[in-house]
Amino acid sequence: MPYLLALASAVLYGAGDFTGGLATRRAGMLPVVALSQLSGLLLLLVLLPILPPASPSRADILWGVSAGLTGGVGVALLYHALAIGRMAVVAPTTAVCAVAVPVVVSVLLGERPGALAVVGIMLGLTAIVLVSQQTASEAAQHDQRPSERLPPGVGIALVSGVAIGFFFLSLAQTRPEAGMWPILTSRATSVTLFGLAAAATRRSLRMPGVLLLTLLCGVVDMSANALYLMAARVGPLSVMVTLASLYPASTVLLARVVLGERLNARQIAGVGCALAAIVLIVSGGQP
Q: Structure pTM?
């Protein structure tokens, strides 16, 4: 059962990223993030009374706030990157960074990753280089000069991945006894953050044509978070994280089927390396 939960969370994470990126292409980043985060929060508030009792500590709540700030920024950047770039390139790039960050932090704290993790990090760097490659004709399509070889969205995806990596780190510090409260705190923080941003910029949250898609994005993303936590608490953590981190496969598949995205040979190799890097980094995260 935990394996199915983790795989289901990966599918939902990827679907949430796809729907969020698609909605952002039509309505802009700020309204999509604000309303999708709100819909996920409302879903959890509705379900909270029927969930098992929990006793979050002050530290759990504070880590939830940290997760909300880093995760909110990471998701916002990710949706923007997905909106302006190729989803099949952006999603794996973000995922590699998101998985690598916890490994780097653990090394700085005194832990030593195993050989697989080291190979995975190197493979991840290779993947980032490969997915960043585009042909001269592709560069011309995006009004880039020949020297500007970085495809649209990849740079933002790198920053997004780092932020999401710190989101995972923050959430990992919470106790099992806290139940879903860290996620609730996290989502409430991100909703407040982007609500204030929308008010400060006087940006309208009306999104004719993509409102349902945006609300669906938030529900799917929140469901993925809940499934991942459930899986991680009853199954082997390294295996659960590995399975959940395969979410780019879902985004890539949806982008191929729905949008008809095509990649050149180097980018296809880069996507494969990125997915392999995720597995190696997480599987070899401990010596």
A: 0.82
